[in-house]
Amino acid sequence: MKNILTFGEILVRLSSNQGKRLSEANTLHVNYGGAEANVAVSLAQYGYRTSIFSRIPDHEISKGILHYLKGYDVNTNLIQLKGTRIGTYYLEVGAGNRSSKVIYDRAHTSITELTPEDLDYETIFKDQELLHVTGITPALSDNLVQVTECLFKEAKARGILISFDFNYRAKLWSKETAGQVFKRLLSYVDICSCAELDFIHLLGYEQESERLSYPERLTTYYKKLSKEYDNIAVLFSTKRENLSASTNQLTGYFYTKGQLYESPLFSIDHIIDRVGGGDAFVSGVLHGYLSNWNEQNIIDFATAASVLKHTILGDANIVTEEEVNNMLNNGSQINR
Amino acid sequence: MKNILTFGEILVRLSSNQGKRLSEANTLHVNYGGAEANVAVSLAQYGYRTSIFSRIPDHEISKGILHYLKGYDVNTNLIQLKGTRIGTYYLEVGAGNRSSKVIYDRAHTSITELTPEDLDYETIFKDQELLHVTGITPALSDNLVQVTECLFKEAKARGILISFDFNYRAKLWSKETAGQVFKRLLSYVDICSCAELDFIHLLGYEQESERLSYPERLTTYYKKLSKEYDNIAVLFSTKRENLSASTNQLTGYFYTKGQLYESPLFSIDHIIDRVGGGDAFVSGVLHGYLSNWNEQNIIDFATAASVLKHTILGDANIVTEEEVNNMLNNGSQINR
Amino acid sequence: MKNILTFGEILVRLSSNQGKRLSEANTLHVNYGGAEANVAVSLAQYGYRTSIFSRIPDHEISKGILHYLKGYDVNTNLIQLKGTRIGTYYLEVGAGNRSSKVIYDRAHTSITELTPEDLDYETIFKDQELLHVTGITPALSDNLVQVTECLFKEAKARGILISFDFNYRAKLWSKETAGQVFKRLLSYVDICSCAELDFIHLLGYEQESERLSYPERLTTYYKKLSKEYDNIAVLFSTKRENLSASTNQLTGYFYTKGQLYESPLFSIDHIIDRVGGGDAFVSGVLHGYLSNWNEQNIIDFATAASVLKHTILGDANIVTEEEVNNMLNNGSQINR
Amino acid sequence: MKNILTFGEILVRLSSNQGKRLSEANTLHVNYGGAEANVAVSLAQYGYRTSIFSRIPDHEISKGILHYLKGYDVNTNLIQLKGTRIGTYYLEVGAGNRSSKVIYDRAHTSITELTPEDLDYETIFKDQELLHVTGITPALSDNLVQVTECLFKEAKARGILISFDFNYRAKLWSKETAGQVFKRLLSYVDICSCAELDFIHLLGYEQESERLSYPERLTTYYKKLSKEYDNIAVLFSTKRENLSASTNQLTGYFYTKGQLYESPLFSIDHIIDRVGGGDAFVSGVLHGYLSNWNEQNIIDFATAASVLKHTILGDANIVTEEEVNNMLNNGSQINR
Amino acid sequence: MKNILTFGEILVRLSSNQGKRLSEANTLHVNYGGAEANVAVSLAQYGYRTSIFSRIPDHEISKGILHYLKGYDVNTNLIQLKGTRIGTYYLEVGAGNRSSKVIYDRAHTSITELTPEDLDYETIFKDQELLHVTGITPALSDNLVQVTECLFKEAKARGILISFDFNYRAKLWSKETAGQVFKRLLSYVDICSCAELDFIHLLGYEQESERLSYPERLTTYYKKLSKEYDNIAVLFSTKRENLSASTNQLTGYFYTKGQLYESPLFSIDHIIDRVGGGDAFVSGVLHGYLSNWNEQNIIDFATAASVLKHTILGDANIVTEEEVNNMLNNGSQINR
Amino acid sequence: MKNILTFGEILVRLSSNQGKRLSEANTLHVNYGGAEANVAVSLAQYGYRTSIFSRIPDHEISKGILHYLKGYDVNTNLIQLKGTRIGTYYLEVGAGNRSSKVIYDRAHTSITELTPEDLDYETIFKDQELLHVTGITPALSDNLVQVTECLFKEAKARGILISFDFNYRAKLWSKETAGQVFKRLLSYVDICSCAELDFIHLLGYEQESERLSYPERLTTYYKKLSKEYDNIAVLFSTKRENLSASTNQLTGYFYTKGQLYESPLFSIDHIIDRVGGGDAFVSGVLHGYLSNWNEQNIIDFATAASVLKHTILGDANIVTEEEVNNMLNNGSQINR
Ligand SMILES: [Ca+2]
Ligand SMILES: [Ca+2]
Ligand SMILES: [Ca+2]
Ligand SMILES: [Ca+2]
Ligand SMILES: [Ca+2]
Ligand SMILES: [Ca+2]
Ligand SMILES: [Ca+2]
Ligand SMILES: [Ca+2]
Ligand SMILES: [Ca+2]
Ligand SMILES: [Ca+2]
Ligand SMILES: [Ca+2]
Ligand SMILES: [Ca+2]
Ligand code: NI
Ligand code: NI
Ligand code: NI
Ligand code: NI
Ligand code: NI
Ligand code: NI
Ligand code: NI
Ligand code: NI
Ligand code: NI
Ligand code: NI
Ligand code: NI
Ligand code: NI
Ligand code: NI
Ligand code: NI
Ligand code: NI
Ligand code: NI
Ligand code: NI
Ligand code: NI
């Protein structure tokens, strides 16, 4: 079993019932999310000792967050209780031909006030073997760009693996700023999640010819990036076909040592909750990679894990390794 | 922005949860509907100043109706608070291979007692530019046949556009009576929604040869009717394929000046609520027509609007023009 | 109208909301089930006078069971109120790519303590014309193996038809024991539900060549069994394709006098609740058989009944003969 | 065990959640009620074979009514499925200083069309020993005045006991008409529920001096009525103090052979649902009277039964004799 | 009918179910509040043409706010759609011996960015006859102190009545700052709500001797303030006894021309929602005052209105004048 | 901070909504309880490092239990995942004059199969400073009598404090057997919760004269027991007055060194959930005792803690020390 640290904002999510517009909702479901919290929860279900480094205010709503994380075996000792706001987002759950809608209310939150002075590296990195951060964290404030870089540098120095998921959010910052920051961060990264549009919009790559298949184009981008940053050992991403808000198709790609591995195409019908699907995928890859599985197993497992997430209400993928493998092998029988 | 008047009964709808038979329901969802109210609500979301002329009793349940309509920007000043019954219907929401079931409880309602003496044309038609009524209204009582005719005649005299949706309901009256009334009403109509079965069952047309495609047959009917009633400027309808109560396909048709325009075929999966889909379609056509869009845009928009309605619980299509266009152009992404 | 008796355990079912893992559920839906209760309820909706012979404790939860059965016209006079436990099962309702999960809590229940001494044949069999039992009943305890045999023997002696559904449950007993018991029971049976895997795993048949189609293989098994047990007049089963927990395909097979009849293949989308689908099928076959319908009608009706069950929350198929036929003939229109 | 018949309308009740105005409700609770149905249900819980004679339409909502009554052991064979409307009422559940509000929607219902020609006395009265009706039934239509009289006359002729509860409803008819009808009906009645205001407003009695205590005044009225109608064997009623919608005080009075018996004063706090409290009281009196209990036991039991009703959501008093007695004797312990 | 303007923040309120801690809540009820919105809604139910001047962002959640206000007849034309945050608060609903808890999340909200430059007096004050603001508004930002003063000055100049409710919130600002601001504002005020602690903590008055009764002390404070600010025509407040979170006692006081008027003491049991009780009281006073009722009627009505508010879930007092008077006169009967 | 161990069964509790009989419930609330789990949870909220030693099966429902305990900071490492049944109980939540009802379904559960061989003392007692058990644990099986004695003996040997709560449950065993077992266990106990009826029914004491006040009688019993078992340092209990299921009065008593301390009498109105009130009281006493508070503070705090528990749905007292003290000092204000 390995110790894993994630760093990012923990969010309160308030979602309407299916079929209800947010503007008509008179009850909202409460869940907790945030990309890095989602990864910490998912990896804890696979048996890792996970912690999240974050900051939230010291009040009742935070208690719910701590209850949630501890209940799912995430260590909360590194969460600082300070500041005045928790990041919140409203989710209008789509269905059929109406897509989901997210309204962020995450300005001025506690974590955005975190500065490099708040970092006690000894405590934070004690016994950690991997650090996972997504591009949402530096998007939240200038402070957090600095803090992320400090953490990456220090982790590197201590021989801790660094995992980075681009997770670009247009509602939080511009493509230009994000690209500049990501380029600096990439020089520390060992494990990296990014896809075609990230290369084109953020890293400034030319789009490869559409006559090439998607896997061919992706291989080209991944090759190029691996050359530029030879610290990056593995790259991965999914390709999603949106047939409707309820029906998607998903394929996973995993690249290492010049070779791209592709999962089967999964048909996802009757989607319950698509949010966190990317985090479930990243968690699956990290689990497979840290377990030294062969590449095809890694990408099949990670994509299946992501598919399974779509059937669970809430941001986090509350499933065990055994359940993911059952789904991969057996499909959808009642077990009795 | 234009002023629009609709005339018809406002209904209380009581619906069971999905998967529950009405006979087992111990809670029911309350919504408000009625074809003309639905059109008034939808057009208000597109920015029109809409009013509904109707009658409901003066009690608590009516308050809920007024709250609902005002909250969605429908002017309720023309609603008379009089009489003793509100039209009510029970909806057993279908799913998969079980179709929805409607039980009407709308006899003896307040609106059925409305007579031509109750009509104060000055107040009713003040500043109106279009009047919309469906075939349900005259189906409710003999009084309402008279009232509808009076309103049509007076609207015509004042140069107000008249929109009519056949909306034949077999549970309310016979095909014969409906046909006779509709024929009289049609001589006032500018804008008209009706489909193949209406021509055959209500207007007594011969069915065109099945060797003709549906659009070809429809063109024939529409041509014929346009000749008979040269006051009718545009005709339109949808064709629905019921794969199951959860999965449908929908195509829209719009006819004007001898030419039929056809929308793409929309696949609708994971239907939340099909009721009001026709009213959403009519509202979309009226919006496009009053905005002088080109014909293809009108029918694409109206059909997409109807498709979107299927994803919302309740009779009315609570969506903006921008949301319909997003769906037409982008499909079902999470927007964040 | 005929009198029908079933014998088996009545279960309390506690199920989570769709999208919720059982481990996160803070409310559970209460329904009542048990294969033989489900058949009794379904047949009562078709107009039969049904009774269930069973045993449950004498307390508040049992009151709910009695209310449920009486409310759906099942006679409860043969239910003994004795012992201390009610069989319970937890159902995690699957969706899309996540299958449903059942956790049984049915050891040491009241019915398992029933012995042949508790049987008052005069009362139990008074006016009965058919006895239905599934393989779950003898699986529950050694006592119940004995009791089932005693009932079969006595029913036979009284000229009462005997219907048996294999319903093998791996969580309750081994294939070996089940096979031995079933072989003894089969010598009393007139009407029998079993499928390919039952023949191979329980009766020890060789699997027929995969080059034969499924109907061909099934015909071979059924022929063989009919020869071995010439008391068996009809055999039937369904074949299910699990595309996902929400989307299945179902075909029904009915065999009699050397001939296999096959229903159309039904596509089932947006499944609400798959539990009890088999019991709905058996009930449909029993209704058709007792009504002397022709074979094709029997299998079409029974399979359609099973399909309809998938749209209803709860174990039992609360539909009328008319509703099944409507579905067979008309598909999924709103009826208004 | 005795056979008891009640005659009256069965109502669908739609109630808001506590704290919600009806005009804001987006879900409503479904229960079934009607004074005579409530009495039939309550007496069935005490072990009587009860039936209700009534009429409701033949559709899905009626199925729910039949399920409810059968589930609580009320025989529904005398319910005619005919006509088009079910009586419905909306209940805004009060709390604290806001009283409950009832909106009736019960004009033109099936039962109001019942005429003396629809009465098959042999079937209706077979094996009955007591007939219970309240003043609501003749209030519903002129037809029902006639039908009630016919039933009273015929019951009398057959030696069946007649129980009558005044239950005057100002929303249904005037005091004058009610008084005239009640005076005619009283000449058949053996067992009668009425209180001070009934004497003054309906029977035209002078109010007794306020210097007399309530029990003294009531004794005077009861004496007088007993003289006038010597067929009346027992008279009874409750006196309620409304401290708030959540807190009441209740005392029961039972009069027979010149003597008034008074229950203790019960304090009722945290009222869940007051509707049906009177019917629970009447049921308690009928049970005690038919069981030949002594007078003090009768009135204590009946008042305690009514008190218990206030703790149960829904119109009917779903409690056993044992539970009423436990409450009388032990108050409110957890039993474990 | 009069035109009334209020000015203040509109809040989203998220509240847990009774008996649930906020930290365990998995659903929250959505309501809308804010002291000035509550007053606008309540006065609209009494028949006034009310408007609220405010600012909220332009997104889905704001749509819900607009729907709510329009549905309750509050004009929303003066609400500016600008900025990024809506004020939010979490409410843990207390019960019995556990008090309610409020967590504010209202920093950096849209309204706090409003400046005097944003004020278009012509539009804002068109046809207004009274302006109501509470002390919460200037507490929100320095900008809003300025804006409030500007509005008061301009209203005064236009002869518009000014109503001010102290509504001191310790979570928003210090007593010192509040006191200084309030003193400046008071010189414009005609109608003023404040109580003993306001005088002592905010205005720096000495506490009057405890040997004086509360009404006597209050009279002294009111006299003094009336002398200091002879523009203030009426003063009023309530005194609340907290027996528990579910049981309170409330008395209202109204002072004018040297005379204090006192309502009866109201016992409030089974409190559903205490929030907004003060706003309901102020609304009642304003209604009585603008209607020129006599003083005792004003204070009885206003206090009864406040009491009624405690029975309704949500911040606003959705009751009519008739309902308040019914409660005053009749207590808690079911009306049927 | 101290380390505390409890030993006992963890229960799944399924409770109906207020106002619903268990027999009508179609949803049940899921909570987790068990006296010793409740104490572990409550003490964890006061800051202790608590663990529970128990056994539950290895399946989905147990996952919910572990999530719950970990989320509330209870160490679950000593919980063995073995056996087949979880103890379950159904709770019909009473209200007003109807008391709550508990139905146990806890025979044959995992923990009853625990034997002394399963005890690894080193692991179990590592770092523990206090062991708490209630009389429910030995009531569950003969095995558990033995196991409890072994644990008490071993704890004693290790100098760990032993806390014992009589918690006699008539549904689990006879008074005689319980008395014999408790007498043996008492010789190890340091801290003991028992009340008058325990002395009389279980320990065979004579009832003291009713002319003595309750505190006087209790002092006599406590003195006597302290003499018999001089190992017992403190004794305590509550006295409850059941005015109704919604309204109680509670007084706490704490005895040490010959002296009885009495809390104020607390009025508890609008009870949400009384279950676990005793465990909340014991937790409060343990916290005060381990914190060396003075005796009056201990009993006031513990009784207030118990009172607060009545306002929270679920078995455990999810409150902090600060919240209990706030309630003691301030009553029920909204804090904003
Ligand atoms: Ca992502
Ligand atoms: Ca979540
Ligand atoms: Ca339509
Ligand atoms: Ca609607
Ligand atoms: Ca089956
Ligand atoms: Ca069921
Ligand atoms: Ca009554
Ligand atoms: Ca009821
Ligand atoms: Ca206030
Ligand atoms: Ca206890
Ligand atoms: Ca709990
Ligand atoms: Ca509890
Ligand atoms: Ni939901
Ligand atoms: Ni939790
Ligand atoms: Ni995510
Ligand atoms: Ni629903
Ligand atoms: Ni669905
Ligand atoms: Ni419609
Ligand atoms: Ni549900
Ligand atoms: Ni089944
Ligand atoms: Ni409810
Ligand atoms: Ni039922
Ligand atoms: Ni209460
Ligand atoms: Ni009643
Ligand atoms: Ni709620
Ligand atoms: Ni609304
Ligand atoms: Ni307020
Ligand atoms: Ni609940
Ligand atoms: Ni306990
Ligand atoms: Ni309550």
Automatic annotation (TrEMBL), chains A, B, C, D, E, F:
Domain Carbohydrate kinase PfkB: 1-309
GO molecular function terms attached to this record: kinase activity
Keyword entries, A-Z: Kinase, Transferase
Leader sequence residues: none
Pfam families, sorted: PfkB
Keyword Methyltransferase on entry: no
SUPFAM superfamilies listed in its UniProt record: Ribokinase-like
Family: Belongs to the carbohydrate kinase PfkB family.
Record protein name field: Sugar kinase
Lineage of source species: Bacteria, Bacillati, Bacillota, Bacilli, Bacillales
